[in-house]
Each structure stands twice: as C-alpha cells, then as structure tokens.
Amino acid sequence: MKKVFILSKRNIALLGLGTVGKVVYEEINNNVSYVLVKDITKKRNIQLSEKIITNDFQEIIQDKNIDIVIELIGGENPAYNYIKKSIKANKNVITANKEVMGKHGKELLNLAEKNNVFLLYEASVAGGIPIISPLVNDLSANEFSSIRGIINGTTNYILTKMSNQKLELSDVLKEAQDLGYAEADPTSDIDGFDAQYKISILSRIAFKSDVSIDQIYVEGISSIKSKDFGYASELGYTIKLLATASINQDKNLLVKVHPALIPNHVPMSSVNGVLNAVEIKGDLVGTLWFQGAGAGAKATASSVLSDLIKIQNTEKKIDINRKNTYEITSMSSHICQYYLRLNVSDKPGVLAGIAMEFGKKNISISSVLQKDLHDDGSADLVIMTYPSLERDMQASIKQIKNLDTVFNIKGMIRVESYK
Amino acid sequence: MKKVFILSKRNIALLGLGTVGKVVYEEINNNVSYVLVKDITKKRNIQLSEKIITNDFQEIIQDKNIDIVIELIGGENPAYNYIKKSIKANKNVITANKEVMGKHGKELLNLAEKNNVFLLYEASVAGGIPIISPLVNDLSANEFSSIRGIINGTTNYILTKMSNQKLELSDVLKEAQDLGYAEADPTSDIDGFDAQYKISILSRIAFKSDVSIDQIYVEGISSIKSKDFGYASELGYTIKLLATASINQDKNLLVKVHPALIPNHVPMSSVNGVLNAVEIKGDLVGTLWFQGAGAGAKATASSVLSDLIKIQNTEKKIDINRKNTYEITSMSSHICQYYLRLNVSDKPGVLAGIAMEFGKKNISISSVLQKDLHDDGSADLVIMTYPSLERDMQASIKQIKNLDTVFNIKGMIRVESYK
Question: Tell me: the pLDDT tens digits for A105-146?
Fold first, then answer.
C-alpha cells in the first residue's frame, strides 16, 4: 500500500532517477514538477508523465514555483554545480551526495545560510541512520572526543564474506557486484574514498572544524587477504574498514580511514554485512551507539523524505504529516511463546495433565525442563510453549492451578520474538 | 575544565537542584536567574548566590525576563502544575519528567502549540540517547511497526546482577540502593511504572496515537527469581524488562511493559547494567538500534542542554554554539597496536632480527604466530605489537624490509583500541 503524503503543492524538482530516486518519486509524485535525467528516452520501470521528465536543468532553476530541489544524481559533477545553482536561486536543497558534501560542504552550507535556504543531507552518511541531525541538534551540548564507525556497506559486506567463507577479495567482489552491493567500478568503496567523504562530513559537524579531504588519512581494503582473518581470529580480533575522527593525546584532531583489527568482545566486531554503525563519545553523554541499514534505496529515501518533511514543517506552508489512528489494543490478543516455572508433584502423569489443559486451548509445548527435586517431594518444572494467545494462556493457567499435581505456578515470563 | 556557553542573557529559571539540576546549573550558571528549591536553607555542595535561589514559583512566573523554564524536579506534582503555568505564561519549557510527559504529554504539547512556545523533553526517555527528536524529525517519513527497548536502567542493573551473580532481587536491590542506582522507594522502577511512562511517550510520537497510561499493560520484575535465569539460560535466553509498542496482527497498537525472555543471539540480550537500548522498525529505514547511557546526571544533562541550544538557536537571539578550532593532525602521530604479516625465511634468528629493529624505536612485541611453512622454505610470521607511534612503525618497517631473513611484509593492519 502506497503511503499518502498530504501535500498540496507541486513545488519539488527531483534530480536523478536511480534506485533511491525511484523510491522518493513513488512517495511524493503528486508534488514533483520535474524529474531531471540524463537520457529522457531511456526505458524505466516506473510510471512517469512525459510532462515532468526533463534533461534541462535551466528549466528547473528558472521555475519560481520550485522551492525544493532533491539531488540524487551522486558523484561530484554535475551534482555540485546543480546544488550550488539551486541554492543561489534561493531553493532549498536536499542531497544524499557524500562526495559533494565531503568536498564542498563548507562552501555550500555557508552559501545556504547566506541565501536563507535549507541544505539538508542526512542521507549522505549511513543511509537511514539518523546521525547528522543528532550531532547537529540533539547532542550539541557535548564536546566530542571520538567518532568511529563502519560507514561503508560495500566493504563491510566484502570483509564479512571474506571472514565467514575464507574467500579472497576478488572472489567476493564479483559476487557483491552481481548482487548490486558493489558498483561496476568499485574503486570509491574498496579504496576507502566513500568512507573518507562520510567521515569528513561527520568530523566537520562534531568537531566544528573544517577538515579537508586531503587532511584525512585513507587506506582501503585491497591488501587484506583471507588468511589475515584467520590469524586475527586466533589473536581474538576481526577486521573491519573503520572510519574514525578523534582528539588525540596532543588535543589535535586525527581523521582517518583504514582497515582495523577490532577486539571480538566489542559491539563493532558484530556489525556484519551491509550494516552500518557509528559510535560517538561525548563528555556529557558518554558512549552512544547507532546501528542500522547504511545503504539501500528505501533506507536512504527514509532520510531524504524526513529531510523534506522538516523543510515543509518549518515553512509551515502545508501539512505533510500523516495522521494515524491506531486502535489501542489490550494484552489479551497478544501472541508469544511463554516460559512457565511450576512447582509440581514428583509423580508420573504431571506433564500429561498440564499438556491436556494446554491442548484444550490449542497451546503446544516446545520444551520441558524438570529440575530441583525438593525435600517435600515437589519438583520444579519449566515449560516453554509455542506461540499462543495471551487470553488462552491466562485461561489455561487458571485450569492448571486447579490440578492436584500442580502445587503452584511460580513464574510466567513471555518470550520476545526476534523473527 | 568548565565549558563556556556563549550566552548573553539571564533568561533561564531552573526548577530543582538534584543531581541533574546541579550539572545543568554548572554549565549555564551565567544565564540562570532563578533556581527553585523546596528548602532554601538546605546545605548544598554547589556555589549558589543567595540572590537566585528561591522557593517561590510565582516570582518566576511573573518575571517577564524569563523565557525558558527547565523543570528537573521529577514526579507528577508540583512539576505538572509548574510546567502548565510556565507554558500559559508563554515561557519555553524543557523537562526530563517522564511521569508528567507520560500522563499529561498530549495536553501539555497542545497547550505549548497554542501558546507558540517550545516544550522539549528529550531527556525524559533514555537519558542521553537521542530518541525523541529522531522519531519526531529524522525518521518522520516512516510508518513504524515496532519500538522495543530496555528503558529502565535500575531494573536492567538489577536483572544483570541477578543473572551474573545468581542473586535474588532483594539482595541486589539493597546494593543498587547503596550505589545510588535505585531509589529509597524503588516501586516506580521495580513495578515497571517508569518504563510505562517512557513507552507511552515514545508510542505517542511514533504511532501518532494517544496512548493513555491505563491502556498500557505493565508487569514489573518482582516475581523473577534467580533460578529463572538458570533455566532461561539452558533454553538459550536471558531475561530483561522490555517495553514494547507494536502494531499487531489486527493492525492495532499494543503497548506493554513486562519481563521478557530474550534470545541470546540478538543484541538486546547483551544490553547490560545501567545501559539503555531502543530498537525501532520503520517501513523505509528497516531496523535501527540506539544504545547508550539511559540515566546518570551528565547523560541526562546532555539532552537537557541540547534542547536548550535548540531553543536558543531557533530563536536566533543569541549564539549559544561554541566554536572549536582543533588542529587537524596527520597519521604520523597516531598511536596504536599493529598487526603485521610477514613472509620470512624459516631459519633461527628471524624474530630476533625483527625484534632488534623494533627495539631501536621502542616498539615491543605482544604476540607472535608462526604459520604456514611454504614449499619454497619461507614461512608466514604474524606479529602483534604493543601501542606504538605510526611514524616509528613506518620507520621500523623500512628497516625490517631490508633484513635478509625477511622476504616481504605482506600486511600491516592497525588494531583499534577499545579501552
């Protein structure tokens, strides 16, 4: 089911119609006046009116009705040029472009401030994970001492596969390309440039210092061999491409991207596949941890569209918020597995009696532990059920309490499902 | 070193001077005109001018210079009354009060909107972890299907101790009280009410539905026995007090707080001690994970002060942002452990030669693995060093490459420190 954003105006131009662009377009097509593409004749598996598709950026710039430009082309040029021109034309800009924001962020943010428009770029780092806005807004009272993260999903997918399946980079890379997790030209990911752009963006915000790309040490993953994972494991470590920005012993800022051995007992070692994670240390907040999908069309669109809602809400022109009206339901309709600890008679037939009561309510038993024979001839019986309705469980418990063989139900704990 | 907030005005009233209040006051005392306390004669280990301490709330309400009230009294009354009166007097309010926001959030937020003032409450849930603002702002494009979290540090500390040390609740509770992790009257934590208030706040935001306190199922931890952890462990689980809000099979919203068995392989099972963690599932963003200090004076103050900066920045009256000017440093001064994989001659004295080169730069070796004798008589040698300067390591590597016994340095990976 398609969600409806309650927007009344066609005030948005979308630049680029790749995987992220398509998801964004599908969510807000009622409000998009232009979709800029390179080749207007290309076949696309998306319904697009001919009226809105264009390859002429000037047309967008000159249209006074457009006050929001969403840039999802990627790469430095022409994206940088388009963003700059949009800001100069007093249009708000939302971008997912880490290369442009990494290389030209300072200039563009200053330009946006001067022109009194928004330049929002939550999607440029760690896809759907809110990390830029928390640093800018929600944690602003802190002095930060370090940020470190796994912020390139492609290399993390590759390293995870190399580690788990004892494969070399070249083998895994081909598979990652076939699955769409790596680009045809994987240089930007493999050599660490993608992570370099992203850590540059985070450093600028957290440390309020302008870090130019060439001040960031970068080393990719191409020299990592399968056997390194084996040796690292013997020593108690795994290997990840880590991007870090931290205040060092001399109170200077060091920003760097390189493969790192991570101790197996810390959470960063368990961030696998295309997941991203960022750890932040602040003087007030201590250590914070953010983890989620760092890439993917929908996760990236989550950040782009949330940035859009921020602009719309702040301008208070129109209400883009959707209202839900969920019915609040009671516990009785909840379904889960149950853990029960009973004090029972140590005689045959106890379990049969309990199972019969459960059976009347279609509750099945998945495990049984019989434990701790007490001096009084009673025993602990632990039962785990299959998923059941709370109301059925409560009804069964009442009946089971009445059984001669059951002295007491000592504990009932619900099992949280993680399917 | 005390941080300086560049504020020019005395426009803040602080209500309450407990542990959080003290940290907040120390950060912004230049801007506080009033500190409201119950007993003005009480001895406090904090420097406070007699002019600003008061027990008369009316004085604050009537002072037109006060445009921000920070409520850190806690509990329902008189905090609720003070917040309401402050909003009605057109003052912005920041609060850490989960009970007031849980029980009266809808009314107070509507009142704040009507009076065109801020009511910010990031600190009311999960202490320093940004969770309210990400839900309100950064993830607003999502339809959420579930929120679940460990959002009460006291009970999580108790359950962790019960599990690790095979103790009963009563024993651990006393220790937690002595350490200041539990209150003299622990009812609100132990019986789940604290978590109930917090999940009510998160539900209202994420599901855009008003959930009243009495619509939330609540069950505390008092029936959990030490032996339950042993049985749960045999079955592959641990036990946590979990607060959840989720859309169920009938598309209704179920909000509940109760002890839950958590499978040992999911991250929620490793959230120990006073840590808090919140997992969010959205249709676009997928599964997100936030973890950090859920309580504590400084972590809570992080949220309160960041809310304050938001208000100040939005009003653009004054610049509260501190500017840092960190020197950006280069890799050469970085210190870490190093993993080296070398291809060496399989003869005695190889390691001695390498160790001597390291010694010249004061680099010590912590571990050595000798592996994989190859057909050509060479062998893999893996060396882990103690923390060393990058420039020393690079210099040593140059020398080691020249050793007759070393054919090649095949890999050098830095070890990330997690001390």
Answer: 999 999 999 999 999 999 999 999 999 999 999 999 999 999
Q: Do B268 and A305 lie within an 8 Å CB cutoff?
A: no
* Whether residues A266 and A156 fall in one domain: yes
B256:A341 CB<8 A = no
Looking at the structure, tell me whether residues A145 and A282 fall in a common domain: yes
Q: What is the Cα–Cα distance from B360 to A67, expressed in whole angstroms? A: 64
Residue A288 shares a structural domain with residue A358: no
From the list B198, B240, B256, B281, the catalytic residue is B198
The total number of structural domains that make up chain A: 3
Q: What is the pLDDT of residue B365?
A: 96
Q: Are residues A178 and A213 in the same domain?
A: yes
Q: Which residues of B touch A122 (CB under 8 A)?
A: 138
The pTM for the full model equals 0.91
Report the CATH number that the domain containing residue B173 is assigned in CATH: 3.30.360.10
Q: Which residue of B has its CA nearest to A415?
A: B261
**Of A209, A215, A303, which is closest to B324 when you measure between CB atoms?**
A209
Q: Please name the residues in contact with B34: beta carbons below 8 A apart, sequence gap of 6 or more.
A: B13, B14, B52, B53, B54, B59, B60, B63, B66
- Beta-strand relationship, B328-329 and A253-263: parallel
Distance from C-alpha of B300 to C-alpha of B293, rounded to nearest angstrom: 9
Picking from B208, B263, B326, the nearest residue to A253 by CB comes out as: B326
Range of the domain at A351: 331-415
ipTM of the complex: 0.91
Quick: pLDDT tens for A281-294: 999 999 999 999 98
- Are B241 and B214 in a shared domain? yes
Q: How far separated are the first and last CA of chain B, in Å rounded?
A: 23
A136 at B interface, C-beta within 8 A:
no
Cβ pairs bridging A and B (under 8 Å): 351
Exposed (0-12), middle (13-18) or buried (19+): which is A369, by Cβ within 10 Å? middle
Q: Mind listing the pLDDT tens digit for each residue in B190-219?
A: 999 999 999 999 999 999 988 999 999 999
Binary contact (A367, B235; C-beta < 8 A): yes
Same domain, A109 and A188: no
Does a structural domain hold residue B234? Answer: yes
Q: Which residue of A has its CA nearest to B270?
A: A267
